[in-house]
Structure formats: structure tokens, C-alpha cells
Design brief:
- By secondary structure, the protein is an all-alpha fold.
- It is built from five helices and no strands.
- Helices cover 56% and strands 0% of the residues.
Length: 169
């Protein structure tokens, strides 16, 4: 028994909310960082800047840059979740199982016979001819001539080794 998968809309709710929340946090972090940086620049350039303005703006920049970083990481993670959902096929429709037809076959139908289209069956040619159809070549073998004094003929044809060993007068 298989469990029912949620629809594509249900599978997209969490990553979509995470992406929207991450975009909001990124925008808030960017605006806050920009505001704190401009406050710090104004305090440093004016002659009336106090220690609270300077050090407070530095702390505000650190906090707002943390928000900006968390938003960017959230965007990357939610896009990765979208990729995983697409990779595992959570966004595609599940394949419906075909109902099993228990009806009796009609007269003349064969249940176990494979279905082959007649045009496709005639278009297929064998890759090579069967071996049994190939003609068999009859090789004619000539018998070797019978030589009675083979060692004597061999010495005569090689330059007469026996003649070289005879004493010379």
C-alpha cells in the first residue's frame, strides 16, 4: 500500500514561505545597514558627534549586517529546497495506476501473444545471414608426393654436407 503524496501546491507552501520571509529579512537588513552606516558617517564628520552616536551606530551596523546575512542564507536554502523538490519529483503529478481488467478475452484474441505491428516486423532485417545458409566450400587437398630416400635428397639439396666432410686429395 502506498501513501498518498501531497499535491504540488502543498509541497510548495513551506519553501515559498521561507523564500518570502528570507527576502523580507534581507531587505530589512540592507535598509537597516544603510541607515546605520549613514548615521555613523554623519556622527564622524560632524564636530558635535557623541560617543553614543559613534559606538551605537557601529553596533547597529553589526546587528543589521547579521540580518542581511541571515536573509541571504535563507534565500539560498529555500532555493535549494526548491531544487530538491524538483529533483525528487515532488512537483510532478503522481502516475495513476491503471485499473486491472479482469474481463475475459474476446473470441479470437490471444492473451499471451506479443503484439507486433506488421509494418515494423517486415522492416527489420537480420544483421547477418545465418551460418547454415552459407555455402560450404569444398577444399581440394592434394596428397604430398611420397619420397623414399628423404635424407639423401635433403643433403643433396642443401649443398651436400657429406661431400664437404670427405678428405681431399
Amino acid at each position: 500500500m502506498t501513501t498518498a503524496r501531497p499535491s504540488a501546491a502543498v509541497a510548495l507552501i513551506l519553501p515559498t514561505l521561507a523564500l518570502a520571509g528570507s527576502v523580507v529579512v534581507t531587505v530589512l537588513g540592507a535598509l537597516s545597514t544603510n541607515s546605520a552606516t549613514s548615521t555613523l558617517n554623519a556622527a564622524l564628520t560632524s564636530q558635535t558627534g557623541t560617543a553614543a552616536d559613534v559606538y551605537g551606530s557601529q553596533s547597529a551596523i553589526v546587528v543589521s549586517s547579521g540580518l542581511l546575512t541571515a536573509g541571504i542564507v535563507g534565500i539560498v536554502v529555500s532555493l535549494a529546497v526548491f531544487g530538491v523538490l524538483i529533483g525528487f519529483g515532488a512537483l510532478s503529478k503522481p502516475v495513476a495506476e491503471a485499473p486491472i481488467d479482469e474481463a475475459e478475452p474476446a473470441d479470437g484474441e490471444f492473451v499471451d501473444a506479443p503484439v507486433v505491428a506488421p509494418a515494423a516486423a517486415s522492416a527489420v532485417e537480420p544483421a547477418a545471414a545465418p551460418v547454415a545458409e552459407a555455402p560450404i566450400a569444398e577444399a581440394q587437398v592434394d596428397e604430398a608426393p611420397v619420397v623414399e630416400n628423404a635424407p639423401a635428397e635433403a643433403s643433396a639439396s642443401t649443398g651436400s654436407a657429406a661431400a664437404d666432410e670427405s678428405p681431399r686429395a
